[in-house]
Amino acid sequence: MKRMNKNIVPVILLHLLYSMIIGGIVKAVEIEAWQSETRTVCFDPAPFDPHYGPYI
Prior knowledge:
It is built from 1 helix and 2 strands; from the N terminus they run H-E-E. It is mainly α. The protein has a domain at 21-56. The longest helix is centred in the middle third of the chain and has 39 residues, at 2-40.
């Protein structure tokens, strides 16, 4: 059992890391798509600035 646990822990950590990276990419793509949608619908682009993030 101890051997298995030693092998499983790094796999779980790698999985978390990959899911974080993929999630970040997906979120960036979603924001980009949302941005271009709002631009094409002619809404004011001010609420979102690509350099500083959304204004709150």
